[in-house]
Amino acid sequence: MLTASFILPRTLEAAVGHAREALTRLPAVIQNPDMAVAMDILKSGAMGAATAVAPLAFAVMLVGIMGAGAQGGIRVATKLFIPKFNRLNPFPGIKKMLGTQSLWEGAKALIKTGVLGVVLYLTVKDLLPVLLTAGQLPLGALLTIVKDTVLTLVRYAAAAGIVLAAADYAVIKKKSMKQLKMSKEDIKQEHKQQEGDPHVKGQIRSRQMAMARNRQMADVPKADVVLVNPTHVAVALRYDPMRGAPRVLAKGQGAIATKIRELATEHRIPMVQDVPLARALHKGTEVGQEIPAEFYGAVAKVLAFVMSLKAKGSAAGTHRNPNPTPIPTAA
């Protein structure tokens, strides 16, 4: 409306000019009726009207597209052209009428009506004295006054509409952002979906640890010796010359160490009590790996002691290492 109020005067001037030109050609047609000349006047009149109205229509269309794009972008909703019978269902519309959105729309309608009423009153208030004395004014001057008053009314109404539209846009945007915000429960659920449920992850971790314990317990019967501390720590070792240095088959402390000792007793695997070496191996090695080089000498003495026990036929059970080797501090 505001754009149209500035372009409309020029549009009217152009339209009046084209109409005056067409009217000046009519007397000649009346004196000498000719269908071709009449159609030419009609054609030029229609073209003149289209030429006069085109800037107004184009400007209003351009401003409308820009306004829509500024609010939410421009999207061609082709799906809306597909007919759907559920759009004829009145119940969703009734439900919307009873919601908070309908209350805001009703408030907007009342505010717009009130603002336009005030604008109309302030504009017409100054026009009424002029109309009461219109008989004293030339027709052209009166039309000019009425035109200016109408344009002022349209511009004030358009300015008020822009202010109301800005307020409405702010309210709707705030409401939409509030609806898009995620609740704490939604955030927790999304975190679970992205990172995994902590309870499920804990259960999986527990199962993995249980499976690892079961695998190393299954390897205990293959051990050549179990180093103990004497009850808190246990490390099962196996030495295969074809595979290099001795390897750790199983290790643990507390309940796991107790289980390793029980399996060693059951399968008659010798257990050697060497507190420093058992602690150092438990801390500095991993299951399935070879022992570090700094433990070669100490473990070699333990294996030699076990071989001497086996030669005597008394390897089973728990034995104290008669020849412990000091363990380096770095271990």
Automatic annotation (TrEMBL):
GO CC field: plasma membrane
Keyword hit for Nucleus: no
One Pfam match: Bac_export_2
Gene Ontology terms: biological process: protein secretion
Record flagged with keyword Iron: no
Annotated keywords: Cell projection, Cilium, Flagellum, Membrane, Transmembrane, Transmembrane helix
SUPFAM superfamilies per UniProt: EscU C-terminal domain-like
TM annotation in the entry: 49-70, 153-172
Protein name (database record): Flagellar biosynthesis protein FlhB
Gene source species: Spirilliplanes yamanashiensis
Gene: flhB
